Amino acid sequence: MHRGSSKVAGGAPPAAENLPLSASPASMLTIEIDVARAGRHSVESVTVPEGSLVRDVIRHAHQAPEGSVVLIDGLPVPLDTRLERSVRLLVLPTFSGG
After folding, report:
1. Which domain does 32 fall in, by range?
2. Reduced to 3 states, what is the DSSP secondary structure of residue 43?
């Protein structure tokens, strides 16, 4: 057998559950995104994989995360926070166009 061969010594291929790419798919979370701007609120619901970053979820809702404060349960959270449960994000844009 030469280097790089796809054949396995002993004849039997490894079981699928032992392969690194066969991990179970991530659980999906439903995230509500409440964007408060100029006294108005717009709410959107998105479904994302568990472990998604707040930053990516905000972008998914077509908002600029770098120009926003994001609250979960009334507390500000870093944009690199991984979401492990379904939550409601309150997005407060901190700038406006002119």
Report:
1. 25-93
2. strand
